[in-house]
Amino acid sequence: MQTVDFRHFELKPGDRVLDLGCGEGRHVISAYLEPGIEAVGVDLNVDDLKTTRDKFADFDGASADSSFTLASANALALPFADNYFDKVICSEVLEHIPDYQGALEEINRVLKPGGLFCASVPRRWPEQLCWALSEGYHKVPGGHLRIFRDRALKLEIEDLGMCQYHRHWAHALHVPFWWLKCLFWERQDSHPLVRLYHRFLVWDLMDRPWLTRSLERLLNPLMGKSIVMYFRKVPA
Question: Which of these, 53, 23, 14, 13, lies nearest to 4 by C-alpha position?
Answer without folding.
Answer: 23
